[in-house]
Specification:
This protein is an alpha/beta fold. It folds into three domains: 9-174, Calcium-transporting ATPase, cytoplasmic domain N; 181-314, Rossmann fold (3-Layer(aba) Sandwich); 319-545, Up-down Bundle (Calcium-transporting ATPase, transmembrane domain). Helix content is 51%, strand content 16%. It has helices at 19-28, 45-56, 62-65, 100-104, 121-136, 158-161, 181-190, 203-213, 225-229, 233-239, 251-262, 278-283, 296-301, 311-352, 359-377, 403-430, 435-440, 445-465, 481-499, 501-508, 515-526, 528-545; strands at 9-15, 33-35, 40-42, 68-75, 80-86, 92-98, 107-112, 115-118, 140-149, 165-174, 197-198, 222-224, 245-247, 269-272, 286-290, 304-306. Strands 1, 4, 5, 6, 7, 8, 9 and 10 form an eight-stranded mixed sheet that branches. The protein has a three-stranded parallel sheet with strand order 11-13-12. Strands 14-15-16 form a three-stranded parallel sheet. Helix 14 (311-352) runs antiparallel to helix 15, helix 15 runs parallel beside helix 18 (445-465) and helix 18 runs parallel beside helix 21 (515-526). The longest helix has 42 residues, at 311-352. The chain is elongated. The mean pLDDT is 89.
């Protein structure tokens, strides 16, 4: 259902019994019901397809005409279900529906030209070949067998009912692949995500669908539950990467598969909808339940629930998760590099003995110039190569990938630009730089104002650098209009504070800055873009060699 549309339709038959008996038997051996108002069956997709198949032949009132008197419910171990219904002549008929290989194994006779005759080995082989031919067309194939009773049986257990049956025929149905799934699987492979199919269907059906979707390339990559039983845990652990399809599996097989993949230090996500899927979903690193067809038990143990039961949604969630994680790291790097610059600048000024910034100025930078762009960076779209990257290691911290070094280098670069702006302001004010005057606090007003403008402007420009940690700013085709708005707001507010004389006097004790000083401060701030571009280019080369 996650890979296919969950809209089963019967498209082929291999009949032995008369057609009416076969269609009626398939419909009666179902828990789906015909809805007269809707004109179609309501229930589980596979069973609804069988009831709809009978409905097309005009067999719509079967449940009322042939009331069920007993049943052996479907079990994933038996891969069959049986019902006993009352016939019109007050006798009883048993219908058993399930996987062709298991149903055939319980048959000793077969309908032939309306008569019941012994089931020969030759005929048995022909039916298995017919089953394989349907499965190779990616059809889900179910078999039907029957048994007649003059009197109602006393025991409705599977052991009492499912033996010495008469084979009635095969029904092949198709559940078309969701059109978006093949592309999603291809995208997952490019992102380093391995997709494995686990199904109760016949192996030929599973292989056909898996090939169509690009999960496997040939039959050797598929294995059945019976073959899995013959493998030890050690052998499975050694060969787990060889298999992409598991067919005819039991619930316990799913847990073994999950554990084997986890044993390879892989992060395993497991999808499922039935109660029997709950243990493996619980054992997986990430359990994914089905929101439409999933049982409450499965949803409760799952870490996430798909509202549309669609595999492609999982891959979209992976992409969104990578985008969010990327953006968190971008915001952290932006804030850390900016705050390190403030710390380094104040530290250097303190060592020399002059005052670079007042507390209220640093508060302004943190609340306005840092805050708004950082929030906007969190709205950045996913980068173009985000689903072509290999998955990060589970042990990687937030500073992995040289992010700590990036923060320090960029913090130092911003510090140098701010200090250069300060000394330029002192020079414009005095015509020379006198450290003694700066320590005395008599020649630093214009320098402090220029340093303040540069710090604000450099952070505004730097937030655009952080749209990508490694890609060049000039290679990014999409625009983050939230970032443009945040940068514009920070710029306007900073210009008001600097150029509006009452505020400038409040912050600096001097009127506004001269044009020469403003342009110099702005020019120094712009330099952060080429500096970071060079650093990104160097880091791309280093990481490529790694």
């Amino acid at each position: 259902g996650t890979l296919t549309q969950n809209k089963m339709t019967v498209v082929a038959h291999e009949l032995a019994a008369p057609e009416e008996k076969f269609l009626a038997g398939m419909a009666l051996c179902c828990d789906a019901k015909w809805d007269a108002e809707a004109g179609c069956a309501v229930g589980e997709p596979t069973e609804a397809a069988l009831v709809n198949d009978a409905g097309k032949a005009g067999l719509t009132g079967l449940a009322e005409e042939h009331p069920r008197v007993g049943e052996a419910p479907f079990d994933s171990g038996r891969k069959m279900m049986s019902v006993v219904v009352e016939t019109l002549d007050d006798e009883y008929e048993q219908y058993t529906k399930g996987g062709p290989d298991v149903v055939l194994g319980r048959c000793t006779t077969i309908y032939e030209d309306g008569k019941v005759v012994p089931l020969t080995e030759e005929r048995h082989a022909e039916l298995l070949a017919a089953n394989k031919a349907m499965a190779d067309r990616a059809l889900r194939v179910l078999a039907l067998a029957s048994r007649h009773y003059v009197e109602c049986p006393d025991d409705f257990s599977a052991e009492a009912l499912e033996h010495d049956l008469t084979f009635c025929g095969l029904s092949g149905m198709i559940d078309p692949e969701r059109p978006e799934v093949a592309a999603a699987i291809e995208e997952a492979h490019a992102a380093g995500i391995r997709t494995v199919m686990i199904t109760g269907d016949h192996i030929d059906t599973a292989v056909a669908i898996a090939k169509n979707l690009g999960i496997i390339e040939d039959r050797s990559q598929a294995i059945t539950g019976a073959e899995l039983d013959r493998m030890s845990d050690e052998e499975l652990d050694a060969r787990i990467e060889d298999f992409g399809v598991y067919a005819r599996v039991q619930p316990e097989h799913k847990t073994r598969i999950v554990e084997a993949w986890k044993g390879r230090n892989m992060i395993v996500a497991m999808t499922g909808d039935g109660v029997n899927d709950a243990p493996s979903i619980k054992r997986a690193n990430i359990g994914v339940g089905m929101g439409i067809t999933g049982t409450d038990v499965t949803k409760n143990v799952a870490d996430m629930v798909l509202a549309d039961d669609n595999f492609a949604t999982i891959i979209s969630a992976c992409e969104e998760g990578r985008r969010i994680y990327d953006n968190i790291r971008k915001v952290i790097q932006f804030l850390l590099s900016a705050n390190l610059a403030e710390v380094f600048s104040v530290f250097v000024a303190t060592l020399v003995g002059f005052t670079l910034f007042q507390p209220v100025q640093l508060l302004w930078v943190n609340l306005v110039t840092d805050c708004f762009p950082a929030l906007a960076l969190g709205m950045e779209d996913a980068e173009g190569d985000i689903m072509r990257r290999r998955p990060r290691k589970a042990t990687d911290g937030v500073f992995a990938g040289h992010m700590g070094a990036d923060c320090i280098v960029q913090g130092i670069a911003i510090t140098l630009l701010v200090l250069a702006s300060f000394f330029a302001g002192v020079y414009f004010d005095m015509g020379y730089i006198n450290v003694a005057d700066m320590i005395a606090g008599t020649a630093d007003e214009e320098g402090v104002m220029m340093a303040f403008i540069t710090l604000n402007m450099v952070e505004i420009f730097h937030c655009f650098n952080m749209r990508s940690r490694r890609a060049s700013l000039f290679s990014m085709k999409k625009q983050n209009w939230w970032l443009w708005g945040a940068a514009g707001l920070a710029l306007v507010l900073t210009l008001i504070v600097v150029e509006f004389e009452p505020l400038a006097m409040m912050f600096f004790g001097v009127p506004g800055l001269e044009l020469q000083g403003s342009l110099t401060a702005l020019g120094l701030a712009v330099l952060i873009i080429p500096i970071v571009e060079v650093q990104k280019a160097v880091m791309r080369r280093i990481e490529k060699e790694d």
